[in-house]
Amino acid sequence: MIGPVAVILAAGQGKRMKSDKPKVVHEVCGQSMIRHVVNAAFGAGVSDVVVIVGQGADQVKASLEGISNVHYATQDRQLGTGDAVKSARSALGDYTGAVMILVGDEPCLRSGPLALLLEKQKATKVACLMGTSIAPDPTGYGRILRDTTGRFLRIIEQKDCTPEQAAIKEVNPSCYVFMAPLLWEALEEVVPANAQGEFYLTDAPEILQKKGHEVQALVTLHPDDILGINTRLHLAEAHTIMSRRILEKLMEEGVTVYDPRNTYVDSRAKIGADTVIYPFSVVDGDVTVGKNCRIGPFALIRHGTVLADNVEVGAFVDIVRSDIGEGTLVRHLAYLGDTEVGRHVTVGAGAITANFDGQHKQQTKIGDQVTIGAGSVLVAPTSIGSRSTVGAGAVVTPTRPVPPDTTVVGVPAQPIAKSKENDGRPVDPRQPPR
Question: Among 213, 234, 332, 344, which one carries the catalytic annotation?
């Protein structure tokens, strides 16, 4: 490992979540809590991450699938945060550099403040550097005690605070950077802190301080960064914080969001400049939206969808796992599932692709410059050739795909024929002969 390295504690059960799933795999804005924390660590500049897992380890690992340089260590028994960190020692081997320690249930942690801590530790070489926060409501957090000169003394847990100490606003959100050899040395001296026999990582900074090593506590984290998730109420609060950040970033990059309080965009989504998102719209999952698009109101753009530039998606439209070509218009109340749509297509109001055959999702392909009439149904698998027109209310079946340059109408949809008796004009097959 090149370093610096992050160790992330993710072995807790999270009983107050009232869930069969490990706490850290619950999602915030489309990604698991632990994935957000891992991404923040890599964004801060670490080379490798060691995740401490316990019960539900397979689910935690599955939620991190696809991220490189993530390693795992197992905490066999829940013996406290100090014991959890000791579990990472074998995974780190003979690594002697800086180790950042984080907890996996603080999904709102940002890379910027973590990077500042790593830079500060690199410059000062202190034995332990702690990232702290000034919390308006410090309830539940350990307090940071300092002497009259502002020098760090120790962490005191809330249950052990005097009334004066309980009034302290500077808190410990469990964000540390240790030098690896000194971390292991301190953990060997941590003793069980309660009747449960748990070993607390919070004792390590004080141990190093008493041994003559330098320990610093730096206020770098915003109160929003340190929200720990213990209940579904906390989860909703984290979702609100992260959603606001996502939309603020998009607006800074040139996206118009008319009503951020009533708009949801997934953390994995990418949206181009000059796109406008109208209220009550949802962009959910790994979605790419091009430049100068219009979405909503009340639109749902789901996982696996790509909108090219200049696409308009109307009210109450639902699109999933589909590629929509440049300049295409999808009118209100339409549904496109597993659909490949060409350029400059018009999908009429209420038109749908019937993509599920009862067992499998099937694909529909629509060429360039096609017009799909209002209320029509395209039963997948099927295709509509370029420059064709599907009449309003028509039903295109898998056995009768539409060739290019063709107009079809009816149920099932059939091409409009040309007749000599009608001077070569199209004849609607639904009309009786004259």
Answer: 332
